[in-house]
Amino acid sequence: MENKVIVSPAPHLHDKTSVPWVMWQVVIALIPALAAAVYFFGWNALYLTLLGAFSAVATEALIQKLRKVPIEVADGSAFLTGLLVAYNINAGAPWWFPVMGAVFAIAVGKQVFGGLGHNPVNPALLGRAFLLASWPTLITAGWVKTRFGSINGIDVSSLTPNLQTVSSKAYELVTSATPLNVIKTLRDSSFVNSLTTNLTDSHNIANDIYQQLCNMDTIKNLFWGNIGGSLGEVSVIALLIGAAYLLYLNIIEWRIPFFYILTVFVLTLLTGGVKGMDANYLMLPLVSIFSGGLILGAFYMATDYTTSPITKNGRIIFAIGCGLLTVVIRKVGGFPEGVCYSILLMNVATPLIDRFTIPKPFGEVKK
Amino acid sequence: MNLKTFPGGVHPHDNKHYSKNSPIREISIPEKVVIPLSQHIGAPANPIVKVGDEVLTGQVIAEAGGFVSIPQHATISGKVTKIDIFPSPVGTSQMAIEITGDGKDTWVPLADDADVLFLSAEEMKQRIKDAGICGMGGAGFPTIVKLSPPEDKPIDTVILNGVECEPYLTSDYRLMLERSEDIISGLKVIMKVLGAKNGYIGIEANKPDVIELMQKLTKKESDIRIVGLKLRYPQGAEKQLIYAATKRRVPNRGGLPMAVGVVVQNVGTAVAVYEAVRYKKPLIERVIAVTGSVVARPSNLKARIGTSFATLVEFCGGTTGPIGKIVSGGPMMGFAVPNLEPPMIKGSSGLILLNPKEAHILQEKTCLRCGRCVDVCPMNLFPSLIAQAVKVQDYDTADKAGMTDCMKCGSCAYVCPAHIRLVQWIDTGKIKLAEIQRNKK
To answer: Which of A199, A281, B54, B250 has the maximal Cβ count within 10 Å?
Structure first.
């Protein structure tokens, strides 16, 4: 009996956390969003998600075997990455799409750097960036309608009657684009001017569309998820339920999501709506924070441990940077959405931020 | 009551239920005691007895080895049977004096000055010095040194540490319930020695009965205040307790509490001080919590210094199953020892026996950079960065990140999901850095 007594350094107690525990809790937190995706887009959402998750796990296992390191896919980190890649994909995408994204995310985004804890940028976002660069139309076009309605919540029949005959361009816009796409397109004055042969008519149609988009109905749709978009990012309420769970378990910290979303809200408010179009000034910032990948990005991607700053002040700088870049890309960049690239860019800045925000020890003597 | 606290820290389950309701019991005089020469921080004591000498209980057997040192006394009467290397309760083996008892427990003559506060501060100090008292909370800093601050560092505040923030431990709790008046008298003695105007007793909120009792007893003492503290580890660390009670920040990089006019003493130490000043009684016994899931009857025992852990466990009815780990001290900062041979010393606040399920060794994984260690560090350091730097032998970076300010409380390692042994890495770094600095000179 005596020889079984363990002698090890203090502390002799440990709380319940472990790497697998953390990873699987995040997976659990993402289940409501998956349920919402299945509810709004059908079973294909589940199918694509599982393909993404399991191809990530398989890739990680294979590479760990080739690297002759212990196979640790049970820790849930590859599963989580695959899940997040799939959440960034249009529910109408072909089966191989999440597979490509997940394989790239794990192989190039994570394992080449040495695996868990060593990747400089978020692997899931790198996977999405890879898909966006390789098959841009599959990511940015071909959005599918939710089971209950349109892609962006705009009621076509309430717009100018017979919109299809008056302006086929405007009709196509309101029936095929997500809210951020619509806003991006309306910012393009040459597009607006070419809607009809008459400039005033064109402007009126565009203004109608804008007002329809920036109202409470759209915000309700965004909140519940009854809107087009990547399958895991559409339901704000489902994502917030999971986020509350993670905050409660102390797995994520409030600073990054709070300052990220706040920055996007404030900057969108300050920079105003679309030039020459009217809507309640508060509506566009609200639509901005609820649409696209911001909620998913702010709570689940920007908070990734490995690629975000460790220090509290560093996290605030990181989050404000993400918010700033997101708004810049959305407003003046080429893409309607900027969450993915802004987080990736701030990931790269993380070591620098950490270096400048090393905390001052308790009782630091002022020099 | 308005509860106070400090920034950072963790909330381990306190597991005090095992022994909290067991009143202090005095164990029978052991047949044999082993008294280590170094039970404290500073120079070891020098033996002044030889093998074969007859000694009385309370007789000096080793003299203080310097200013930062304390004498050691025989804790039973009998014969010196060995002066040799013995297993130590704090990790390594060390020199100790073994006394085999004659079963009579014959004491050296004691005094009884019931009005302790009429004694002069000088006389008090001499008695405290002669009694061989060191801090009884665990670290074991010689009490007389703390009570002799340099002239340019006046002390205005004495804080008694009744926090007992380490899980499992209940010896201070029982002491505060059962010896509350002696603790307050001890505090008054310490305040008189230092000329301090303010006395605080810091107690955590999981001991409401003690808080109430102490408040009742100090109602008429305008210069003594009871400070209720939020439950949080490591509140009993000196700098954290000082901050919680007074909002003063002890300077880092080797700053001592006296720099902000404060001296902190454990409540057990206060009792020892009181007994030393009133009775001229040396520190030869203390209360130790013998507890944990494997102990048949977890208890708070009053036992002689030098009693072996095996004797203590036997007195508690032995064990109820296989032992997974033996912890000498608290579970957050205590030492794991390989068997029950070592003796209890002046700083032994607890002996904890964990079962094999509670004693698993966790495998170290890669750092995820989650930042939990930074969030909980009570010294506001960057533990993962320090550990990482030590791993690659970059002691300069580790030092700049505050390595030497680490007090090894273990909060970071407690929360680390990758189970990185942060305390061990940081400690290794400290030792290496000290070596490098020595070689430079």
So the answer is: B250
Half-sphere exposure of B210 (CA within 13 A, CB side): 31
- Digit-coded pLDDT (tens) for A5-61: 899 888 999 998 999 999 999 999 999 999 999 999 999 999 999 999 999 999 999
Substitution target in B294, B366, B386, B427 with the highest count of A β-carbons within 10 Å is B366
Find out if CATH 1.10.10.60 is the number for domain B111-279.
no
Asked, for residue A233, whether it belongs to a domain, the answer is no
Query: In a 3-state reduction of DSSP, which class is residue A188?
Result: coil
Q: Is B123 helix (H, G, I), strand (E, B) or coil?
A: helix
Cβ pair B238, B264 in contact under 8 A: yes
Nearest in space to A343 (alpha carbons), one of A124, A181, A183: A124
pLDDT per residue over B198-253, tens digit each? Answer: 999 999 999 999 999 999 999 998 999 999 999 999 999 999 999 999 999 999 88
**Same structural domain, A70 and A177:** no
Please indicate, yes or no, whether residues A25 and A100 belong to a single structural domain of this protein: yes
What 3-state DSSP class applies to A215?
coil
CB contact under 8 A, B423 and A10: yes
Question: Is A348 domain-assigned?
Answer: yes
Min Cα–Cα distance to chain B from A237, Å: 26
Residues of chain B with CATH 3.40.50.11540: 111-279
**Alpha-carbon distance B209 to nearest alpha carbon in chain A (angstroms):** 27
Cα A132 to Cα A347: distance, rounded to the nearest angstrom: 18
| Total tally of structural domains belonging to chain A | 3
Of A18, A310, A361, the CB nearest to B417: A18
Instruction: Give pLDDT tens digits for B271-307.
Output: 999 999 999 999 999 999 999 999 999 999 999 999 9
* Mean pLDDT score, B155-168: 95
Q: Which residues contact B219 (CB under 8 A, 6 or more apart)?
A: none
Q: What is the ipTM of this complex?
A: 0.88
Let me know if residue A364 belongs to a domain.
no
Residue A322 and residue A317: Cα distance in Å, rounded?
Answer: 9
State the residue range of the domain holding A64.
17-140
Contact A10 B251 (CB under 8 A): no
Between chains, do B380 and A359 touch, taking CB under 8 Å as contact? yes
Looking at the complex, report in whole angstroms how far the Cα of residue A119 sits from the nearest Cα belonging to chain B. 10
CB atoms under 10 Å from CB of A266, counted, come to 14
If one compares A277 and A24, the residue with the highest pLDDT of the two is A24
A43 domain-assigned: yes
